[in-house]
Amino acid sequence: MRIVIAGGHGHIAMRLEHLIAARGDEAVGIIRDPEQAEDLRAAGADPAVHDLESASVDEIAEVLRGADAAVFAAGAGPGSGAARKDTVDRGAAVLFADAAERAGVRRLVVVSSMGADPDHHGDEVFDAYLRAKGAADAYVRSHAHLDWTILRPGMLTNDPGTGLVRLEAKTGRGSVPRDDVATVLLELIDTPATAGLTLELISGHVPVSVAVKDIAGN
Question: Is 37 helix (H, G, I), strand (E, B) or coil?
């Protein structure tokens, strides 16, 4: 498989790239900073340098062309203001979905956030973030030619992954290691029957492969 990941230098993306490479598949990470390229290569991924805030749909579609799946894992990150929540967490996700469709890549998995809602109220930066993620999710869902799955993890931690999760349409609040988020993403990519689902993810007691198969069968 060839899997293209937007936000290729992010904490979850780097873990995912390592998993993809470890099983012998091809990972391509889209990054803005060329100085991050060596980190991606060390994780087993091929870097593609593009700024998702300024790139065109055609430019990103060219990177995606021939891919078996696409993952949106980009984000403005901590310390960014409300404006960049809109240009990255919403705008880049919209661009990436459009590019996937143009490139003929049907399988798209989006890393969103628990609580994402385009109508979320509040004036803080985190409120803007939840609105941006919610608007991006709504846009992705509107694409009839994409087999999308939206994953909404709870509070992310750097604890070692356990491989045990709770993956449901609604889980309630909780935390989850980034290791386990990456493992779930790869399992979702491999499970086309999860297309059309928006899922919440926290730590739990069910092995990842079982949790994904269970939700795919519901």
Answer: helix
Nearest Cα to 96, choosing from 68, 59, 132? Answer: 59
**And the tokens for 131?**
């609105």
What residues contact residue 51 under an 8 Å CB cut-off, 6+ apart?
A: 32
Task: Outline where DSSP puts E strands in the chain.
Answer: 2-6, 26-31, 45-49, 69-72, 107-111, 147-153, 155-157, 164-168, 175-177, 197-203, 206-207
Q: Which of 128, 103, 114 is nearest to 30 (CA)?
A: 103
Q: What is the CA angle 97-6-110, rounded to 5?
A: 55
Contact between residue 103 and residue 65 where contact means Cβ atoms under 8 Å apart: yes
- Check if the beta carbon of residue 82 is closer than 8 Å to that of residue 125: yes
Smallest CA-to-CA distance from 80 within 124, 121, 43, 137 is with 124
Q: How far apart are CA 49 and CA 52, in angstroms?
A: 9
DSSP 114-138: TT--TT---SSHHHHHHHHHHHHHH
Cα–Cα distances (Å) from 170 to 56, 176, 182, in that order, read 35, 15, 19
And the tokens for 62? 């060219």
Express each pLDDT in 47-100 by its tens digit. 999 999 999 999 999 999 999 999 999 987 777 888 889 899 999 999 999 999
C-alpha distances out from residue 185 to 44, 97, 137, 181, Å:
17, 17, 16, 6
